[in-house]
Amino acid sequence: MDHPIAIGVDLGGTLVRVGAFDVDGHLLGQHDASIASIGPEDGLHLIEDRIRLILKSVNSPTLLGIGIGATGPVESVYGIINNPYTLAGWKNVPIVERLNKTFNVPVRLENDADAAALGEYWQGAGKGAMRLYAVTVGTGVGTAFIVDGKIYRGVDGSHPEGGHQLIDPNGPKCYCGHRGCWESLISGPAISSLGRSAPNNSHLIELALYDPNRIDARFIAEAARAGDATAIAIMKKAATDFSLGIINIISLFVPDVLVLSGGVMKSADLFLPTLEEMLRTPNPMVPFDRVHIMPANLGYYAGLYGSAYTILSKYL
């Protein structure tokens, strides 16, 4: 019996995941591979090889298409990855044209944050929500807005960058060119930087055995839970900046569901109390209490689900 499938590709700065899905949203098989420091030609060969492995393992005669969620910037309309910032050498790479030619099926390209949001809408924490806003806090800060199952896009199909909303004009400089954008304040590297620049006489540096390279966001979160005053202050600042960004998002979009994911959000217990406190401030203009804020439940596979959904949505 014919069981049509779609391939989902989740292309990050260090890892590429490839998975096969049926129309009911079942993950039939998947492969991971490191893509760190691999240029576009070798990277495309790697992705093609992983797709072939998946197709062989699931043994389906009908491939409906290939969806890709890639770390941005991407040009979805033109099928191009233009991201030499986190993918070495990946500038103006026509990945859609390449995979379409190799496998002779429809190919769709989306920003990875959009793909992850689609995954949570389709099979995750926001399943079926009319308006879903997703925030991923990790190495960077990715955001996406899903309305009636479709990605909200800006002019010329551009991806709005909620992660680069301005929070503190006196804050650290970001690669986007601004100072104090959300990503420069709450991402994993931003929190790590605060810890590594702490005074040498702080208990945090003692906990790190006087090796600043050991201090990352996870280390700081653990030290804060253990009661270290420096770590608590760092996490409190990050939680405040995080909450300001979330409040801005809710004020602008008022989604039914706001989904949180990413490595930094594994320490959500250190962020959410501050957010809850700030949201309790009376505001007659915005129904903050009616927005459901919850953790993502697809984990690292949200982008894989969402990229496959870009193909399968027309069959549902």
Describe this protein's structure.
With 316 residues, this protein is α/β, with parallel strands linked by helices. The chain folds into two domains: 134 residues, ATPase, nucleotide binding domain (Nucleotidyltransferase, domain 5); 170 residues, ATPase, nucleotide binding domain (Nucleotidyltransferase, domain 5), CATH 3.30.420. 35% of the residues lie in helices and 21% in strands. A five-stranded mixed beta sheet has the order 3-2-1-4-7, sandwiched between helices. It has a five-stranded mixed beta sheet with strand order 10-9-8-11-12, with helices on both faces. Helix 3 crosses helix 10 and helix 8 crosses helix 9. The longest helix has 25 residues. It starts with a strand and ends with a helix.
Topology:
Elements: E1 5-11, E2 15-22, E3 27-34, H1 40-58, E4 63-70, E5 74-75, E6 80-81, H2 95-103, E7 107-111, H3 112-123, E8 131-137, E9 141-147, E10 150-151, H4 182-186, H5 188-196, H6 203-207, H7 217-225, H8 229-253, E11 257-261, H9 272-279, E12 292-295, H10 302-312
Helix pairs in contact: 3-10, 7-8, 8-9
